[in-house]
Amino acid sequence: MSSESVSKESVQTVPSTSSTSSSPNEVSADGRPLLTFAAPRRAKPARHLADLSMAERRDAVAELGEKAFRADQLSRHYFDRLTHDAAAMTDLPTASRDRLAEALLPSLLTPVREIVCDGGTTRKTLWRLFDGALVESVLMRYPERVTICVSSQAGCGMNCPFCATGQAGLTRNMSTAEIVEQVVAGARALAAGEVPGGPGRVSNIVFMGMGEPMANYKAVIGAVRRMTDPSPHGLGISARGVTVSTVGLVPAIGKLAAEGLPVTLALSLHAPDDELRDTLVPVNTRWKVDEVLDAAWDYARITGRRVSIEYALIKDVNDQEWRADLLGRLVKNRLAHVNLIPLNPTPGSKWTASRPEDERAFVRRLEAHGVPVTVRDTRGREIDGACGQLAAAAPEE
Ligand code: SF4
Asked: Which listed residue (26, 136, 212, 310) is catalytic?
């Protein structure tokens, strides 16, 4: 579907309901489901070591007739040495290597195209999954950190009309290992010195690529655990370096708070009032601004983590000073900060980034309420790698 056919006016609102499954009546004017929570049933990717807990890996290895401790060895190769090449696993008996690698380290992501900018320190990779679905991840190296932005679904069912991913609908949920593999691939490139700046490590992971992470909850939590569990269970990245974003699936925010994982929650608010948010973020028709903010404040209280309120500034749509005041009143005195995102225009979209003077005025209004504000670095914009631009277009051949 062409992105031109999606406009603010084309998105209809539906009555609020607490159900998490979409009703067949909830369609936008162009006939697409307004919200798709349940991913289409598809064949699943092959089982991979990163899908499994260590206990499950030991069982899987034993089922192959190998000693259980081989699971630990295999895990060290994958998570520490970032290898899935059986030939490199010289501490494993030759006969075991191929069998274990074949059974537990199947190839899940095939690189289709890589685009680099910022002198090679921003790299967007388009991946083909086993069933042909396309997803993208972006690696961004800064002087003091390396961030990888990962996809959690092929496509997205949340239908935000300003977002390139949302225009294409939801293809399917990604598996835990498919999500983790995006990080391992980036870590491998860094360790090999392929990213300018010398060999390095991944310090931050943001779930801000394709998909709504909270709509693929189980796989996303599994991936966060693999990313943050210490070696040899996982990659050993600090949970404080992991950010899970959501447009506001309230029950899932509550579940995340109870996981005991000190990850940062990024709430994509984009409008402080229900009237506008119903159109910009259609999930608002299910859970209103006050409900989603209550869930965010509960998250901050339970985890002690400052919530990031994400707000894409869209010219003449949500960038008025009165909306900054309203947002400021909602966020002030909370364990939260506002992250303003200059909108990345998508091809054919009528919406574009705010004027610089309007952006400055918005920041001033928020600061007047004592709300901490940052304006997001727009790294990756020139390669369509910034948030809301990961539409995974197939390359022209
Ligand atoms: S902004 Fe996020 S939640 Fe909304 S359609 Fe795009 S990827 Fe999905």
From this structure: 136
Low-confidence ranges of the chain (pLDDT < 50): 1-25, 382-387, 389, 391-397
**What tokens does 281 get?**
């973020």
Secondary structure (3-state) at 101: helix
90-96's contacts with Cβ under 8 Å and 24+ in sequence apart are 96/66, 96/70
Q: Name the residue ranges covered by the structural domains of the chain.
A: 49-104, 108-383
Please state, in angstroms and rounded to a whole number, the distance separating the CA atoms of residues 100 and 38: 33
For ligand 1, say whether the CB of 135 is within 6 Å of any of its atoms.
no
CA 212 – ligand 1 centroid, Å: 6
From the options 1.10.150.530, 3.30.450.40, 3.40.50.620, 1.10.760.10, give the CATH code of 49-104. Answer: 1.10.150.530
> Tens digits of per-residue pLDDT, 175-196?
999 999 999 999 999 999 999 9
pLDDT of residue 30: 61
Q: In the 8-state DSSP scheme, what is residue 81? A: S
Distance CA 343, CA 161 (A): 12
Buried b (16+ CB within 10 A) or exposed e, 249-273: bbebbeebbeeebebbbbbbbbbbb
Distance CA 127, CA 135 (A): 5
The answer to whether 387 is a known catalytic residue is yes
Tokens of 240: 């404080």
Res 28: pLDDT: 65
Residues 6+ apart with CB under 8 A from 272: 289, 323, 326, 327, 330
Tens digit of pLDDT for each residue in 109-130?
999 999 998 899 999 999 999 9
**Which atom of ligand 1 is nearest the CA belonging to 167?**
5
Question: 108-383: CATH homologous superfamily?
Answer: Aldolase class I (3.20.20.70)
Atom of ligand 1 nearest to the CA of 163: 6
